[in-house]
Amino acid sequence: MDISYFIFLSSGLFLGWSLGANDAANVFGTAVGSKMVRFKTAACIASFFIILGAVFGGSGTSKTLTELGTVNELAGAFMVALSAALAVYWMVNSSTPVSTTQAIVGSIVGWNIYCGFDTNTVILAKIVSTWIICPILSGCISVILYYLIKAYVKRGKIHLIRQDLYTRIGLILACAFGSYALGANNIANVMGVFVDASPFHAVNIGKIQLSGTQILFFIGGLAISCGVFTYSKKIIKTIGTGVMSMSPIIAWIVVISQSIVLFLFASQGLKEIMMNMGLAPLPLVPVSSSQAVIGAVIGIGIAKGGREVNWSILGKVALGWVTTPIISASICFVCLFFLENVFNLVVYH
Q1: SS3 of residue 244 by DSSP
Q2: Helix, strand or coil for residue 80?
Q3: Among candidates 183, 200, 241, which has minimal Cα distance to 48?
Q4: Among positive and negative, which fits the CA dihedral 298, 303, 306, 310?
């Protein structure tokens, strides 16, 4: 097995680490911020289900990214992933939640521009449209759940101790579901550009067969988990308590709303069911968990009158969404020039 592949793969692992540091907060930031789940407990749950989702549910969204731009040389894939990782790390270091999806899309577009290749505008439009649809859909789901839960709690008259227990269990289950959805939806951002050059072959583990791509995604899932454990607390503070003060029940609604959205855009089974019913399916594209969770928080904030939402922090987050793809595309374009002309590496063919 060519050792150079693993050297180039290191940028994908760095991007995975950055994604874990940034996006873990979207899965359990509200649960930890509301002090209903301890960080270590949430991190362990998240890591396990992120890997599970990456391995068994990540193939659909990776196909969409390869259609946006087929990065056909390892050195090019290395720089695409590294550029996205640097953009995400820069934002994370300033405690700003960003979209890893936007970062990798920006890098791929930067690679296309440098190499003189046409960007598939149909696929790009499909992905960009989800940047608008995702927070809106998440916000709508959170509003519906908010009113349903509010009515149930009011009528049910559940004892506070039992309500606390139910909420903790609900948050843990929501974190597990959200982590699976995150792994399934976002592993394409981390490892998608390396799929075509993957040296891994299918292996059998008991009665379970894993393809070469699934092994690649497993490695990417491990990198995401490392980011969860080592560097996600900064963003958790922003998501968990910065945008809006949340009760445990509100935290559950936020987590489950963004989890549903990520799952909807990653589920091949759901797509097939909708097509069999003659309905237009949702595209299988990596969507931003940051946008989904912010959309859910805003939805609830508006439902409660909008007074509790910290609009200044929200403006900072929105600015990060706009600048992230531009930054990653610029970094990728400039660094590809140096790889090709200074280090004499082949970045495309």
Answers
A1: coil
A2: helix
A3: 183
A4: negative
Q: Where are the domains of the chain?
A: 3-341
What pLDDT, in 10s, does the model give residues 72-82?
788 888 999 99
Q: In sequence order, which residues have a C-beta less than 8 Å from that of residue 31 and are 6 or more positions away?
A: 37, 42, 171, 172, 174, 175, 240, 251, 252, 255
Q: How far apart are CA 138 and CA 45, in angstroms?
A: 23
Enter the pTM of the model. 0.85
Q: What is the rounded CA–CA span in Å between residue 133 and residue 282?
A: 11
User: Alpha-carbon distance 307 to 266, whole Å?
Assistant: 34
Closest CA to 100 of 85, 119, 120, 78: 85
What tokens were used for 118?
């046409």
User: CA–CA separation, 194 vs 217, rounded Å?
Assistant: 10
* 223-248 per-residue burial string, b: 16 or more CB within 10 A, e: under 16: bbbbbbbebbbbbbebbbbbbbebeb
Sign of CA dihedral 314, 93, 15, 54: negative
Cα separation, 178 vs 292, whole angstroms: 11
| Mean pLDDT, residues 172-194 | 89
DSSP secondary-structure letter at 344?
A: -
The answer on pLDDT for 47 being more than 70 is: yes
- Alpha carbons 191 and 188: distance in angstroms, whole number: 5
Query: What average pLDDT does the chain have?
Result: 84
What is the widest separation between alpha-carbon atoms in the chain?
70
